[in-house]
Design a protein that fits this description.
Strand order of the largest sheet: 12-11-8-6-7-14-15-24
CATH superfamily of one domain: ANL, N-terminal domain
Structural class: alpha/beta
Oligomer: single chain
Helix content: 25-40%
Shape: globular
Strand content: 15-25%
Bound molecules: adenosine-5'-monophosphate-propyl ester
Largest sheet: 8 strands, mixed
Amino acid sequence: MAVPECAPQGELYRAAPDLCQAAHVPTFQCYQELYHRSLEDPADFWGDIAKEFYWKTHCSGPFLQYNFDLTKGKIYVEYMKGASTNICYNILDRNVEKNKLGEKIAFFWEGNEPGNTMKITYSELLLKVCQFANVLREQGVKKGDRISIYMPMIIELVVAMLACARIGAIHSIVFAGFSADSLCERILDSRCCLLITADGFYRGDKLISLKQIANEALQKCKEKCFPVKRCIVVKHLGREDYTFKEASNQSPPSKRMHLDTQVPWNADVDLWWHELMRDASKECAPEWCDSEDELFILYTSGSTGKPKGVVHTVGGYMIFTAATFKYVFDYHPEDVYWCTADIGWITGHSYLTYGPLANGATSVLFEGLPLYPGVSRLWQIIDKYQVTKFYTAPTVIRLLMKFGEKPVKKYNRQSLKVLGTVGEPINPEAWLWYYNLVGNKKCPIVDTFWQTETGGHVLTPLPAATPMKPGSATFPFFGVVPAILDEFGEELEGEAEGYLVFKQPWPSIMRTVYGNHERFETTYFKKFPGYYVTGDGCKRDKDGYYWITGRIDDMLNVSGHLLSTAEVESALVEHAAVAEAAVVSHPHPVKGECLYCFVTLRDGQEFNASLTEELKKLVRRKIGPIATPDYIQNAPGLPKTRSGKIMRRILRKIAKNDQELGDISTLADPAVITQLFSNRCQTGL
Ligand code: PRX
């Protein structure tokens, strides 16, 4: 790859010289040299990064061992096996003791309600984590136990996850927007012995009674013969103290005061967080873990409909998230960094918690929403904390674009230096709005492509080094070797389009699907032996830039969150009126993609507005609000092949009102097509 002089599809964007001067990787040539070194001698390259961390014992065997080829045996990846460390010790104790960052702010917490704020330093965070780790130990939690965490974006969520990591327990965080069914399914799959949650929280104006949803989930677990022994509850609603000392300027509005008695309580199982913490000791020795011990499980949608518990391990995840954070955001100690993702997703794990803390960074932790109480909220927060590095999703940018320039220009955003995006392809229009307006034409945009499975950035620009093309995730990060394959598994060279795969591991690649290694092997390594298959389509242009074209399996990406069509279909067919359902993805101006559902009703059932509402509610209840269908269409018949397979390709075209159906010779009953076109939902297309 050579630095192109000019972009074939338009302008190339480069960082300003002052950013380059101070950057860790100042030029494209420097990136190339480091990249080649990372491939030629991975042990040396990653070994140098690992040296910045504390290892109780070093590994005596090979730095990396792996097999990516299913035809040669079991798939496995091991980095520094035999070395022992503790990630919590490294991001807290090491930063406090060795790096003298005890007084540095780890998080500025900005609540949903403006004015509700807290801050916590590295030493205060360490203390809270030690106390809570002791609480967990007192509850009998041991190394290797799984702990489910279902919490809003509050500091206690970080405390809970790091406390697990400190004692070697495996956290499984479930996004607080998921339903009771989804939480129950995840608790059962990972056999969690304890749940940590909160009484509730506000999302904008809306009260979410989290404990009530958690109770429903626990009840369902019990009915499935898996009673969870303990549930620890943070009292977040109406808290007056804002426990980490930094009191809010205003007391919470009185409508938001909640009494203990309003929280549904089960005295056999439930315990208040603050009561347990009151008596907990402030000293807690870390549990030394093998580099390959499991750190956490995080569920992601699977094409069969059942979520997959993606497993990440301690050592590789630690060094990769630390290194990507440092290089991709060009982190410097004076930065104030803000990632708007929820900790319930991988972005919040890697780039709101582990990566920034490993670097001793100061971050903003935001509980609220971009449009609450007004459409300038994000820009106001950027000015308030003088944020220098800002990381968000294309869906957020598109949402804010709708309100024009004025709400952005109300704030000056002069502190910003680097902008980032993640979660889905960013359309050039949104990229340019972000670059020209939000970043005042002076901030490079790092369009980071990665997945829950990859643990960290795999394709991404480096802000000072990589000339940017709007919409391209550009080049691989250190240690990552992408390839594009055709349908037959042949590697395509030069300009090409096909399946995006990776040829060798990098430290934070997932190690297995929890409790189902075979599913891990089949999902990611079976289609093309010798490669990790991402499930994404990709183009490489003549300058070697990578452009993600979107999912090529039965997954869809709604507002940057992956959902499987099968998951939604199985929720829909639970309704007594529905005989069959087929779900396809449909373009959406803000969410990127949305759900367009075709339902075939049982005999005698009537399709009407109230049924449509019931079905939407059902999907929300079974999965969560992110999965709410935008369109539900009556489909008395579905387009099927003679062997009974639904032809989704045709359904996608019908949803888009595209009459060019291509080859329909394998269709069993072509008559259904006319009927489906005439029943279409009004989508504006
Ligand atoms: O399709 C790709 C898309 O998001 C998928 C991964 O989703 P998830 O595991 O939920 O993780 C999201 C946060 C890392 C990918 O397979 N995706 C993610 N980032 C990008 C992207 N698509 C295009 N460009 C990106 N920068």
